[in-house]
Amino acid sequence: MVDYAKLKAKIIDLEGRSRRNNLRIIGIPESIEGPRPTAFYSEVLVKMLGDQVLQTPPELDRAHRTLAAKPRQGDKPRPVIVCFHRHQTKELVIREARNQDSPIRIYEDYCPEVQEQRAAYRDVMAKLYNSTAKLSFTRISSRSPTKRVTRNGSPRLRKPSPT
């Protein structure tokens, strides 16, 4: 008997790996990319992030709008999916885009199932980020993970409870 849950998890994992070099760009008006979208979006990224971050336009394998119906005049434009040739360049772009104050926003391109999972714990993560306790995981030895809890500036190490 085939385990449906295992197959579904494997498919989600494979889809996530295939989207590893993709970013989703939101806020670019429709139909301005012209006949060569990869070159256009490459130049947009250089203009948006500046010459100090990207000295040359990044090499993009693909660039296209999401597969939704073209919006009517005045509606929100469809997001753009760009696939970077190099993962390091994609990571640089997403890291620097977080520091930008721009109407154009850049996000990771997650599959729908992962987006649902991330939405489910978004409120909890926001509360953790805003709380005074900062939580991080460290590894003292290869077999002994510990939690480092910082409260009011004083770090404490604590072994996790066995599960």
Brief description of this entry?
35% of the residues lie in helices and 25% in strands.
Description:
Residues 140-163 are annotated as: Disordered. The protein is built from 5 helices and 7 strands. It has 2 domains: 4-111, L1 transposable element, RRM domain (Alpha-Beta Plaits), CATH 3.30.70.1820; 122-158, no CATH class. The chain has 163 residues and is of the alpha+beta class. The longest helix has 15 residues, at 4-18. It has a 4-stranded antiparallel sheet with strand order 2-3-1-4, with helices on one face. A 3-stranded antiparallel sheet has the order 5-6-7, with no helix packed on it.
List keywords for this structure.
alpha+beta; 25% strand; four-stranded antiparallel β-sheet; Alpha-Beta Plaits; 163 residues; 35% helix; Transposase_22; three-stranded antiparallel β-sheet
Topology pattern, helix = H, strand = E:
HEHEEHEHHEEE
* Fourth CATH level, the homologous superfamily of the largest domain: L1 transposable element, RRM domain
Spatial separation of the terminal alpha carbons: 29 Å
Radius of gyration based on Cα positions: 20 Å
CATH topology of the largest domain: Alpha-Beta Plaits
Q: Roughly how much helix do the residues carry, as a percent range?
A: 25-40%
Strand share of the residues? 25-35%
How many distinct folded domains? Answer: 2
CATH architectural group of the largest domain: 2-Layer Sandwich
Largest β sheet strand count, sense and barrel closure = 4 strands, antiparallel
Number of strand elements: 7
Indicate the structural class.
alpha+beta
Tally of helical segments: 5
